[in-house]
Amino acid sequence: MVTTKALGDEGEERALAHLRRAGLELVQRNYRVAGGPGRPAAEVDLILRERDGTLVFVEVRQRRSSGFGGAAASVTPAKQRRIVRAAQHYLLQLRTPPPCRFDVVAIDGDGLQWFKAAFEAS
Fold first, then answer.
1. Considering just the CA atoms, what is the radius of gyration of the chain in Å?
2. 70 alpha carbon, distance to own chain's centre
3. Model pLDDT, residue 101
4. Name one Pfam family in it (predicted).
5. Predicted local distance difference test score (pLDDT) of residue 65
6. 121, burial (CB in 10 Å: exposed 0-12, middle 13-18, buried 19+)
7. In which element (H, E) is residue 19 found?
């Protein structure tokens, strides 16, 4: 039996391969920030760099089918806030933060869609 973790890892690998073919360079995987009282932990699945220097924070979502709104619909506003919080924490490490954007790679069954600038930090 394949675990949910194994499926997630497979989805991340597939997304990463797709993004690398598009010319992005991997900076870091699974960047995590601990939660606190009343605040859940936060994570960015993939952090990549575009050729122009833009830092791209990528959320990878995978579903076996597109039912229930599909993978892209599962990136809720609450999930977006956690991704933004992790990205802000990551950027604190950099002397001069580069331009950034938040992308989503949605995998529904065999289909893969890359949504550039899927949401903004607000």
1. 14
2. 16
3. 98
4. UPF0102
5. 62
6. middle
7. helix 4-21
Tokens of 93: 């490490």
What mean pLDDT, rounded, does the chain reach? Answer: 91
| CB hemisphere CA count around 73 (13 angstroms) | 8
CA atoms within 13 A on the CB side of 98: 13
Chain centroid to CA 13? 12
On whether the CB atoms of residues 87 and 121 are closer than 8 A, the answer is yes
**Domains in the chain with CATH codes:** 4-119 (3.40.1350.10)
Task: Give the residue from 120, 50, 52, 39 showing the smallest Cα distance to 87.
Answer: 120
DSSP state, residue 34: -
Helix (H) or strand (E) holding 5: helix 4-21
Please state whether the predicted TM-score (pTM) of the whole model is above 0.70.
yes
